[in-house]
Specification:
Elements (H helix, E strand, L loop, with lengths): L8 E2 L3 E4 L6 E2 L6 H12 L8 E4 L8 H24 L12 H9 L7 E3 L2 H14 L7 E3 L6 H4 L2 H8 L3 E3 L5 E6 L4 E6 L9 H23 L3 E6 L6 H15 L6 E3 L7 E6 L6 H5 L15 H16 L4 E9 H10 L1 H11 L2 E7 L8 E6 L16 E4 L2 H16 L11 H17 L2 H6 L27 E4 L22 H10 L1
Parallel strand pairs: 3-4, 5-6, 9-10, 13-14
Antiparallel strand pairs: 1-2, 2-4, 7-8, 8-9, 10-12, 11-12, 13-15, 16-17
Helix pairs in contact: 7-8, 10-11
Length: 513
């Protein structure tokens, strides 16, 4: 869709420009004599100062009453639109381009047409009203078709419509043309076909080329092909014949309303032209891209597609991690692999311990396949120590602390037998010195913040770890483990990282305790 403030109302011979002062004549009218006639004719028509007109190609050799009638029709149309715009409140639908029937009369009606048949009553009424306002003398050729036989079947129009969508178009002389649209350009190839005559090749080429000129111009209009177009005519030697073909092609293109730029035939027999593209081609409107070939018109051969599928199966099987591969393929490709690659499939199953299942489906795309993998079950070796729980360091919670305090309180209530004093005084002095040295290393904050512990039964209190020391965690730790029933959890009250006593002293301790 296009939104613009440039308003133009096309008629049969004129184009009204309501808000534009200038006018002109169609560029396709290249004859200076015709342009002067049209200019003098338009000077006799009084055009409002704030409007302009463009004379269309159909206005050549038209009389003043015909031009005047078309001018009056466009002026009435514009006044009606302007009146609606002033009275109506936005949004409001002011005007719509005429339908296909009226547009066909406006663009293609010529004096050479003898009869116009319309099988739809509503369209017939609109076309009749348009002819009555613009070209009353053509009312006699407009007829309403009422026969029981469909109009397309009556005049064999279906065959002509079918040809529009084909690449190959037959010629009356026995030759044919091939129309091939590409991304960059549209190529048209002319071939002699059945009309070839080996005795006179030059004459055959000339007749086929002249016959192709008319059909190519017709196909350009029917298919609305635009852009760069290259035509490959049959090679001709005689320059006179080349000039005649160029002249015939220009004459055939004169009926085309699109703007065309034409070159001459080169020494290679190529003619280039550029045609204005007004809308999408009939192929773009009526067709969609094939989901299988992606618009190329080609598909892989049976052997090529089968080998590609087998290589994919092989690449999955050699991984050695699958116990089963279920492959879904098109029916023809599955048969090809099973019949021609059976030995290779058996080797893959034997060498890699995989089971291959090939399934053929008739509804799958030609170059499509699916692979479903089943992974092998891995055996895990369980060590003998895996069942034994490991000791873990866990943070002491508040509940654990409360239980420990209760246990200590219960133990303190029990009267212990008096212990005899140790005779080895130097050892006790050594322990004191060790404890003092340990406490001296600790920061003052740790010693002041830590609560004082009362020694029981003459034993020295172990040093308290500092919370700021990197060697110790923030909270005291205890060893927790899931041990058998015959074992009991052990608490370590001392420094885990303190140096061990000498062996001699440990022996003496046995005797003392």
């Amino acid at each position: 869709a296009l939104l613009a403030a440039y308003i133009s109302l096309p008629g049969r011979y004129l184009v009204l420009l309501p808000n534009k002062l200038c006018g002109g004549i169609s560029r396709k009218i290249d004859s200076e004599e015709d342009r002067q006639k049209i200019k003098s004719l338009m000077e006799q028509i009084k055009v409002p100062e704030d409007m302009g007109f463009i004379v269309r190609t159909a206005g050549i050799n038209r009389t003043k009453p015909e031009i005047q009638r078309d001018y009056q029709f466009l002026m009435r149309l514009w006044k009606d639109i302007f009146k609606k715009a002033e009275s109506a409140s936005a949004p409001y639908f002011l005007y719509q381009e005429t339908d296909f029937g009226v547009r066909s009369l406006r663009d293609y009606l010529t004096l050479e047409i003898d009869e116009i048949l319309v099988d739809d009553v509503e369209t017939f009424r609109k076309m009749r009203a348009y002819l009555k306002a613009v070209a009353p003398r053509h009312l006699r050729i407009l007829k309403n078709y009422k026969d029981k036989v469909p109009i397309f079947e009556r005049y064999e129009l279906e065959e002509q419509i079918r040809v529009i969508y084909q690449e190959r178009v037959e010629l009356k002389s026995g030759g044919y043309i091939i129309i091939n649209p590409t991304e960059a350009m549209i190529t048209i190839d002319v071939n002699s076909g059945r009309g070839s005559n080996k005795r006179n090749i030059e004459e055959t080429a000339f007749k086929t080329n002249v016959d192709a000129c008319e059909e190519i111009a017709r196909q350009l209009r029917l298919r609305d092909l635009g852009g760069l177009i290259v035509i490959d005519f049959i090679d001709m030697i005689d320059k006179k014949n080349i000039a005649e073909v160029e002249k015939a092609f220009k004459k055939a293109l004169s009926m085309d309303r699109a703007r065309i730029q034409l070159s001459r035939i080169s020494k290679f027999g190529l003619l280039e032209l550029s045609r204005q593209k007004k809308q999408s081609t009939i192929q773009e409107i009526s067709y969609i891209t094939c989901p299988y070939c992606k618009g190329s018109g080609l598909r892989p051969s049976l052997e090529y597609a089968s080998l590609g599928a087998f290589r994919k199966i092989e690449s999955e099987a050699v991984k050695g991690i699958y116990s089963e591969l279920k492959v879904s393929l098109p029916h023809e490709i599955a048969l090809y692999i099973l019949n021609n690659k059976r030995t290779e499939l058996l080797k893959l199953e034997t060498n890699f311990g995989v089971c291959l299942l090939i399934e053929g489906k008739s509804d799958m795309a030609w170059d499509n396949f699916e692979i479903q993998q089943s992974v092998k079950e891995q055996t895990l070796e369980v060590s003998a120590m895996q069942g034994v729980p490991l000791l873990t360091l866990a943070e002491e919670t508040e509940s654990d602390t409360d239980s420990d305090i209760k246990t200590d309180a219960e133990e303190s209530d029990v009267e212990e037998p008096p212990k005899r004093k140790s005779r080895r005084r130097p050892r006790h002095r050594k322990r004191k010195s060790l404890g003092a040295s340990t406490e001296s290393v600790l920061p003052e904050s740790a010693s002041s913040d830590s609560p004082a512990l009362e020694p029981s039964s003459g034993a020295m209190a172990p040093p308290i770890p500092s919370a700021q020391s990197p060697r110790f965690p923030v909270k005291p730790l205890k060893i927790v483990g899931a041990l058998p029933d015959e074992f009991y959890p052990v608490e370590l009250d001392g420094d885990l990282f303190a140096s061990e006593p000498d062996q001699d002293e440990s022996k003496d301790d046995k005797g003392d305790h």
